[in-house]
Amino acid sequence: MASTTTPKGAPTPARKRGSQAVADRPSGPIEFVGESVEELKKVVWPTWSQVQQYFWAVLVFVLIVITYVGLLDLGFGWVLLKLFGAG
After folding, report:
1. Is 0.85 topped by the overall pTM?
2. Helix, strand, coil % (nearest 5) of the chain?
3. 24, exposed or middle or buried, with CB in 10 Å at 0-12, 13-18, 19+?
4. What are the structural domain ranges in the chain?
5. Torsion sign (Cα): 78, 80, 83, 86
6. CB under 8 Å to 54, separation ≥6 — which residues?
7. How many angstroms separate the Cα of 9 from the Cα of each of 6, 12, 14, 15, 53?
8. How far apart are CA 51 and CA 57, in angstroms?
9. 3-44: per-residue pLDDT in tens?
């Protein structure tokens, strides 16, 4: 029975590009900015209360990560000084 698949390494036919893909592209920077403004009008923006909650959540998380990395740095520094001496 004959196989219908192409052998491994054989070139495959190129895909045809539709003319619609070219027509959907913005024609210039002014049109791009206009379309961007229209898309931004569709965005559901957070309330001021949500922004404050997110701010505090991110701030606390960043402080925790800073503390964790700082303690790791101190710990590894102490271990290296004990292993190799201070001079």
Report:
1. no
2. 65, 0, 35
3. exposed
4. 46-87
5. negative
6. 46
7. 8, 9, 15, 17, 56
8. 10
9. 667 677 777 666 665 555 556 665 899 999 999 999 999 999
Give the whole-angstrom CA distance, residue 50 versus residue 58.
Answer: 12
User: Which residue type is seen at 69?
Assistant: V
Cβ pair 72, 65 in contact under 8 A: no
Which of 48, 70, 51 shows the shortest CA–CA distance to 59?
A: 51
Band (85; pLDDT cuts 50, 70, 90): confident
What is the tens place of the pLDDT at every residue in 41-59?
999 999 999 999 999 999 9
Residue pair 6/12 in contact (Cβ under 8 Å)? The answer is yes
The tokens for 70 are 């700082």
